[in-house]
Automatic annotation (TrEMBL):
SUPFAM superfamilies: Putative DNA-binding domain
Domain Helix-turn-helix, first and last residues per copy: 6-53
Domain of life: Bacteria
InterPro entries xref list: DNA-bd_dom_put_sf, HTH_17, WH-like_DNA-bd_sf
Protein name: DNA binding domain-containing protein, excisionase family
């Protein structure tokens, strides 16, 4: 059964960006939608995939 949620480390590995960048995106609301499970940040795989499609070549630039 494939994972339906990604940790911040999982997403960092998937996108090839440092964890601090993901925290910055979260604080500026420019990255994929996320939620907190207690004190842990989690990303729904469907939200990540939708965000990736929206930011393919020719899409908007994110910092």
């Amino acid at each position: 059964m494939p994972a339906k949620h990604l940790s911040i480390r999982d997403l960092s590995d998937r996108l090839g960006v440092p964890v601090p960048t993901l925290y910055r995106w979260n604080s500026h609301q420019t990255g994929p939608k996320y939620f907190r499970a207690g004190r842990h940040v989690r990303y729904r795989l469907a939200d990540v995939e939708a965000w990736e499609r929206a930011h393919e070549a020719g899409g908007e630039r994110v910092a």
